[in-house]
Specification:
The protein has 293 residues and is mainly α. The protein is 67% helix and 3% strand. β1 (125-128) and β2 (134-137) form a beta hairpin.
Length: 293
């Protein structure tokens, strides 16, 4: 790890500001510069630095999920994040901390919501276990990671953002989709776990609830910045209103996908998939949906 956290913080706050202020004009004029900045930082700083890097990911992908995802992929930044996820999945001792992996998975989720085929030519990648065994990390492992790590996400404002994005992604990848995805088969095989996640979200938050924009928590060792804070917050509020976490409703997405799943797969296959789910989970989901109908 070579980048100092204080330098990373300043660099990321400046970069985030330029994206928020400049929008498409900034992205078009400084596409390569932004790529190079992120190449220098991602995977090259401590977890606190990674938290500030996520501010840039969020600013970029909230407004430009397709273009931003392509920028990350073409610059090799996406592969760096996927490699870290793979190491974590294989329990390699060299992997970055779990809180950093959560940030990477959220960035990947935003990118795939913009373009589900983004990683089709990238996955699978290989990683090495602690024992030196080469292992494959592909679409199945990525989806399984979202499922397994979902329960461990912290219950705070950032956690609510991560959860909603992850669940929106997984629901979006279920059939029917505009074109086939490399993820749908794996999601159907994990339907019991996915519906358990749907229940946990729908049962504990209003369908219309919208998470706050991503924020880096206060650190007493860091200098606070008060100048321009109100203007910054105002810009974030404007961006948040256009964000998928505010424009998309989890319950509506869930109901739409379940109805589409039945018609796409046919009743026999659909019933077989539901048979893998605990009946009590199906009953509780049905009750929640009927209550708000």
């Amino acid at each position: 790890l070579c980048m100092d956290v204080s330098l990373c913080r300043i660099l990321m706050l400046i970069t985030e500001g330029y994206i928020l202020l400049g929008g498409a004009s900034f992205l078009n004029a400084h596409y390569s510069t932004l790529q190079n900045i992120l190449i220098l930082v991602v995977g090259q700083t401590k977890p606190r630095g990674a938290a500030y890097t996520a501010l840039v990911f969020e600013a970029l992908l909230r407004t430009f999920p397709v273009e931003g995802g392509t920028l990350l992929l073409q610059g090799g930044i996406m592969r760096t994040m996927l490699s870290s996820c793979a190491l974590n999945y294989q329990n390699n001792s060299a992997c970055e901390p779990e809180r950093v992996i959560v940030l990477y998975l959220t960035t990947i989720a935003r990118s795939l919501l913009g373009n589900p085929a983004l990683l089709d030519e990238t996955l699978p990648i290989t990683s090495t276990s602690n024992e030196g065994v080469t292992l494959s990390y592909g679409p199945r492992e990525l989806i399984h990671m979202y499922i397994v790590m979902f329960k461990g996400i912290e219950s705070n404002s950032n956690g609510a953002l991560h959860k909603k994005l992850w669940l929106l992604l997984m629901l979006s990848l279920l059939p029917p989709t505009p074109s086939p995805t490399v993820y749908s088969t794996h999601l159907l095989q994990m339907m019991d776990q996915l519906l358990e996640i749907c229940l946990s979200v729908l049962a504990h938050q209003p369908a219309s609830s919208n998470p706050e924009p991503y924020d880096v928590g206060f650190d007493s060792e860091e200098e606070t910045i008060e100048t321009g804070k109100d203007a910054y917050r105002a810009m974030l509020d404007v961006e948040a209103k256009k964000d998928i976490t505010n424009t998309a409703d989890v319950q509506s997405a869930f109901q739409l996908k379940m109805a589409g799943l039945a018609s796409t797969l046919g009743n026999d296959v659909y019933q077989h998939i539901l048979s893998t789910v605990e009946p009590v989970i199906l009953q509780q989901l049905e009750r929640i949906v009927n209550q708000t109908a």
